[in-house]
Design a protein that fits this description.
About 40% of the residues lie in helices and about 20% in strands. It is an alpha/beta fold. It folds into three domains: about 230 residues, 2-enoyl-CoA Hydratase, Chain A, domain 1 (Alpha-Beta Complex), CATH 3.90.226.10; about 240 residues, 2-enoyl-CoA Hydratase, Chain A, domain 1 (Alpha-Beta Complex); about 45 residues, no CATH class. Strands 1, 9, 10, 11, 15, 17, 18, 19 and 20 form a nine-stranded mixed beta sheet that branches. The protein has a seven-stranded mixed beta sheet with strand order 2-3-4-5-6-7-8, with helices on both faces. Strands 12-13 form a two-stranded antiparallel ribbon. Helix 15 packs parallel to helix 17 and helix 19 crosses helix 20.
């Protein structure tokens, strides 16, 4: 029973697609990857070199320079929320990344969440969506019990847009509630105050367990300009709330340091004092191993055109260590794959959609399209999701789904009830769940497979992701159905009316297709980050490792007593 019966999966690339087809798909992905990298660079530049120079003239580091010194040498930042507010015009100004960098960073060998105001964008001000982005990062830290570091250099709300970021349920004040929840649940919080820390920015560090200030830093409810206007007092912000006040008088900060470099060294020292990661323990001496089939092949195997099928098992073979996988409940619900594999030496559960045509177990002689949820598949992934939660396995959902089966037969099969069971399961799971929108994420299928409304810790999209209720063409037909015949052709003999209907349908289709752009999704925080397909394994390795870093806050069973073994015995009679 202790044996986890993983077996090799996947084939060599040459056995899956010919060289010409592979090269053609890679070439179709390439401009999308180039666009992603160009837009990342655009966001990372903030407001540009002039504002970088302004920061340096003050003897300070830019936020991204601070982050580069904070993380362990040779490691990378895994940013989330890169494209929040992307392309939105605020009266002639933009707010790259909503003026704040949120990222997973490895510091002294421990994964942490870092929240850092971008001091090259309006002095780190909070724009519309900035509070929500900070709160989303705090929630990720809370769910994974990751130490949380605040690099504060914040001039408060961007006041011309204050109505969009101040008052709502997830407005700026909710940041401080999240500070409180993190503290109440024992998640370490460490704050470094590097400069301006005004109004809400002044509150953000206070609940942290340790607060450091540089000699240029200050924390104030109201800055010097407001004091001058309200009380006619001529006094600097440093005089009001600098380190002399808050370290030596108010006690609102713990230590003062001379400069940015020293503060960063102090933050690293504080993280080093925390318990180390439990990941090595849960690996049980098994070292991480690369897949036998390289992840770099994924762009050539997953077509850009969402109507084209591919072998979902080959995706798993390029994500799991050594391309080893245990498929659970393989004989039912064939439209879905459920199972367990190691990622970075640590076990994780996987759920993903098969593509193409599969046998119909109800008809026994017919085939039906995969990428759709039918009764057995829904029951299967619901059962598997509960087993992962019981066993403490982090659960990875790889979506490429068109939705639920529809029609009279689907209703007779009770898909509403089966779907509700799955939704209940995913809504009440405590094990960390991570969702990846590989390609299509449509309709209620997006919900059922742990889409963002069902609180995955992180949701990732790719440059070919398409998130919507339905495709643009389908929606256009539905919108003008009364004007169409059974073959969806326009019913009119009037050429002008026909031309006008064709124009309107095309406009609807184009608008919906534009809304499905992953950058629109990321801009409005309907997904956490856009990544390249060949980055996916690295992201999953990090997310899974973070799931095992903290100990004692959730159930993690050893493989001898997994509920998975019970499912295997009941379905298949077990294995030798």
């Amino acid at each position: 029973m202790a044996h986890v019966p993983v077996v090799p999966i996947g084939k060599e690339r040459e056995a899956i697609v010919d060289q010409g087809t592979f090269d053609r798909e890679v070439n179709r992905h390439e401009p999308l990857v180039q666009r992603l990298n160009a837009r990342r660079a655009e966001v990372q530049a903030g407001w540009g070199p002039k504002y970088v120079d302004r920061v340096h003239e003050k003897g300070k580091l830019t936020t991204r320079e601070r982050l580069d010194r904070l993380k362990d040498p040779g490691t990378r930042l895994y940013e989330v929320g890169t494209f929040v507010n992307y392309g939105i015009d605020f009266n002639g100004l933009e707010s790259p990344a909503a003026g704040v960098v949120t990222a997973f960073a490895q510091i002294e060998g421990r994964w942490c969440v870092v929240i850092a105001n971008d001091n090259t964008v309006a002095s780190g001000a909070w724009w519309p969506k900035t509070p929500e982005k900070i709160e989303r990062a705090q929630e990720m830290a809370r769910r994974l019990r990751l130490p949380t570091l605040y690099l504060v250099d914040c001039s408060g709300l961007y006041l011309p847009e204050q109505s969009k970021s101040f008052a709502g349920a997830t407005g700026a004040g909710h940041i401080f509630k999240m500070n409180s929840l993190l503290s109440a649940e024992g998640v370490p919080q460490i704050a470094g105050v590097f400069g301006d820390c005004i109004a809400g920015g002044g509150y953000m560090p206070i609940i942290s367990d340790r607060v450091y200030m540089t000699e240029q830093a200050y924390m104030v409810i109201a800055g010097a300009a407001l004091i001058k206007g309200a009380k006619s007092q001529h006094i600097t912000s440093l005089d009001i709330g600098g380190p002399e006040v808050h370290v030596h008088q108010s006690g609102c900060a713990d230590e003062r340091v001379p400069d940015d470099e020293t503060l960063i060294a102090c933050l690293r020292r504080e993280v080093a004092r925390l318990p180390s990661s439990g990941a090595a323990f849960y690996r049980g001496g098994v070292e991480p191993m690369e897949p036998r089939h390289p992840t770099s092949e994924l762009p050539g195997l997953i077509p850009v055109d969402h109507r084209q099928a591919y072998d979902a098992e080959e995706v798993l073979a390029r994500l799991c260590d050594q391309s080893l996988f245990w498929e659970v409940l393989p004989s039912v619900g064939r439209e879905m794959i459920c199972g367990v594999g190691r990622v970075g030496g640590l076990y994780a559960g996987f759920v993903l959609n098969r593509q193409g045509l599969i046998d119909d177990p109800e008809a026994q002689t017919e085939q039906r399209p995969a990428g759709i949820l039918y009764r057995q598949g829904i029951a299967k992934i619901s059962t598997f999701s509960r087993a992962c939660n019981s066993d403490g396995l982090p659960l990875i959902w790889l979506q490429d789904i068109s939705g639920f089966d529809i029609g009279a037969e689907a209703e007779r099969h009770g898909l509403l009830a089966y779907g509700s069971n799955l939704i209940y399961t995913n809504s009440t799971n405590e094990t960390p769940m991570f969702t990846v929108l590989l390609r299509k994420a449509s309709g209620a299928g997006y919900y059922a497979m742990a889409g963002l409304p069902y609180d995955p810790v992180v949701q990732l999209s790719t440059p070919i992701s398409r998130l919507s209720v339905m495709e643009g063409r389908t929606l256009a037909i539905a919108s003008y159905n009364s004007k169409l015949d059974d073959n969806f052709e326009i019913v009119t003999d009037d050429p002008e009316e026909r031309a006008e209907l064709q124009k309107k349908m095309s406009e609807v289709e184009a608008r919906i297709d534009a809304d499905m752009d992953p950058y629109v999704t990321a801009r409005q925080m309907d997904t956490d980050e856009i990544i390249q397909l060949d980055e996916l394994r690295d992201w999953l390795r990090v997310l899974v490792e973070m799931s095992y870093q903290g100990i004692g806050y959730r159930r993690v069973k050893n493989p001898r007593i997994w509920a998975m073994h019970d499912l295997d015995v009941l379905m298949n009679g077990g294995r030798a």
